[in-house]
Amino acid sequence: MEKFFNVAGPCHPAKHYMLPATERLPDVMRLIRQEQYFAIHAARQSGKTTLMQGLVRDINASGERVALYFTVESVMAYPDPHDGIFKIVERMRSDLLRHPLFGELVRDPNAPVPQLLPQPPDMGVKVLLSLLAEKAGKPLVVFFDEVDGLTEGTAVTFLRELRDGYITRETVPFPASVAICGMMDIRDMKAKVRPHSDALGSKSPFNVIAEDFTLRNFTKEEVERLYAQHTAATGQAFAPGALDLVWEYTQGQPWLVNALARECVEKNPQLRLFLSDHRRGHRHGQGDDHPP
């Protein structure tokens, strides 16, 4: 498959020009090895989901741990925990239906096509994660995306269940490492889920979070490396001046970097000429027509 610059959803190394996401957050693997719980936040379309899914692939490929990714985005409309926690577990079980290791925990063995077993009425997030950790047979790492979109009682209950599992994991199976991810940092998330000081009680679920990471933008050198992948694959080069201007326009914001590259190489090739000539004119006061 011919690779391209992706501007819609997470990137995959077999399909898209991309850089190793862990380069932008190198300390993550340290916390995973230490079996810590942590948070990741960044703006939309900055590569959070790409990072997490890349980490899941890398962790599973190493064979030392088992990793899973879930998103709770679809549960944002359920503030009542009786509905919200049920929906989170339902979404998790659905994602596991065809998983080679965990599918048997949720799949009806008598169904002619893969079909979920009925959801036990008392199964919360803690119970399901405990079953998964026991089945994994190795340290389990779980990434939860869009957690800051959970509201009111559902958010509080979800975080409490993670905390309860964390503090008893020496005796009851539970994930060795959990990441909660979203756009908000820990301080803003705390303010959202506890508008009143006693909303979470005396034991805050956030006290199990070791670190809160911010996913940074690309550096200029990373933008150059990313665009060089396209040049290596197609022979279509960007002039150094063009790349300088791309950096000035985007400041390394991943979606903008990819969107501008896609516009140049797929939809409007003359934009590459414009970027190159505009940069030369900016430097030298003239706009000679040179190929990019």
In total, the number of domains comes to: 2
Total helical elements: 11
Tell me, briefly, the overall form.
Answer: globular
Number of strands: 5
Over the alpha carbons, how many angstroms does the gyration radius reach? 22 Å
Give the strand order, joined by hyphens, for the main sheet: 2-3-4-1-5
State the share of residues found in helices, binned by percent: 40-55%
Topology pattern, helix = H, strand = E = HEHEHHHEHEHEHHHH
| Overall average pLDDT | 86
The CATH superfamily of the largest domain turns out to be P-loop containing nucleotide triphosphate hydrolases
Derived from helix and strand composition plus strand pairing, the structural class reads alpha/beta
What is the CATH domain class of the largest domain? Alpha Beta
Low-confidence stretches: 197-202, 276-292
Beta strand %: 5-15%
Could you name the CATH topology of the largest domain?
Rossmann fold
Tell me the distance between the termini.
26 Å
CATH architecture of the largest domain: 3-Layer(aba) Sandwich
How is this structure best described in words?
The chain is α/β, with parallel strands linked by helices and 292 residues long. The chain folds into 2 domains: 27-214, 3-Layer(aba) Sandwich (Rossmann fold); 220-284. It contains 11 helices and 5 strands, in the order αβαβαααβαβαβαααα. A 5-stranded parallel beta sheet has the order 2-3-4-1-5, sandwiched between helices. Strand 3 (140-145), helix 6 and strand 4 form a beta-alpha-beta unit. Helix 9 packs across helix 10 and helix 9 (240-250) crosses helix 11 (270-284). It is globular and about 60 Å long. It starts with 27 loop residues before the first helix and ends in an 8-residue tail after the last helix.
